[in-house]
Amino acid sequence: MSRDHEMRADFYILIARGTRAENILKTLDPQENIPANAMFLSLETSEKSFAATVVKEIDDLITEIVSDGQDPVITGIKVTGREEQGMSMEENLKKVEAPVRLNLNGTAVFRDDKLVGWLNDSETKGYNYATGRVKNTVGNIACPNHQGNMAIEVMRTDAKIKGKVKNGRPIVDIYIESEANIGEVECDIDLMNLSTFTKLKRMLNKQSKKQIDMAVEKAKEFRSDIFGFGNAIHRSDPKGWAQVKHHWSDLFPDTKVNVHVHTKLQRTGTITESFQKENVK
């Protein structure tokens, strides 16, 4: 397909999960006349506002497949409901709530050009944090006093991966810089207190590191270098990469990975205390 000189490369690749690709393309969407447009908009919106999907174009996919130091990942999509209903205008378009929908579901992991497993949403977030793909997302963390939750909006992430080979063993360091804002607060805490901010940043760093560690462990289980650790070693330590490149898939699961996360809390919003607390005063 990519040989055709007239082929456009600005389209996204998805993996049909649990069904055939033709059934995905036949599923009608209440908001879009053309199912492909519905999928395109869904994936584009999810990439901008939710960190659990991966946008992949054909050029990127080909580059990752042929690369010695990185394996590809592709977002999955599945049909929820009875497939035959989703193909019927009467059944799926003329009801207030469509009984059949297309949902982005998990991330397919490849080794070379073969599908070897799936990442769940949390693991996909870890992958996106480690590769600097998170543009904007909202997540919850427990309040420091464990009496509720807080919504945290991540506004930007920057990631760097450095690698080397020491005594025959590959070692990788992942450095994450992120900026976040505090959103909804369900507990009684003083957001003007410096120690509160320090605790929150530690908690955010810990949660992000946990998600990245989960994604790394799953990738090691699949023996698939989706993070591009091999490329990172090649850039930082060309001689070391020359020693390990020919049996990289065997060495990859034993790679020592150190994750360093630093989060900046930028804003607390226009309300620094709960209005309920202020009323009590």
UniProtKB/TrEMBL annotation:
Coiled-coil ranges per UniProt: none
Top-level taxon: Bacteria
Listed GO CC annotations: membrane
GO BP term, pick one: spore germination
Gene3D superfamilies in UniProt: Nutrient germinant receptor protein C, domain 3
Primary location group: membrane
Domain Spore germination GerAC-like C-terminal, first and last residues per copy: 105-269
Topology of the protein relative to the lipid bilayer: Lipid-anchor
InterPro entries per UniProt: GerAC_N, Spore_GerAC-like, Spore_GerAC-like_C, Spore_GerAC_C_sf
Subcellular location: Membrane
Keyword Lipoprotein tagged: yes
Keywords: Germination, Lipoprotein, Membrane, Palmitate, Signal
Occurrences of domain Spore germination protein N-terminal (ranges): 1-78
Alphabetical list of NCBIfam families matching this protein: spore_ger_x_C
Family, similarity comment: Belongs to the GerABKC lipoprotein family.
Protein name as it appears in the record: Spore germination protein GerAC
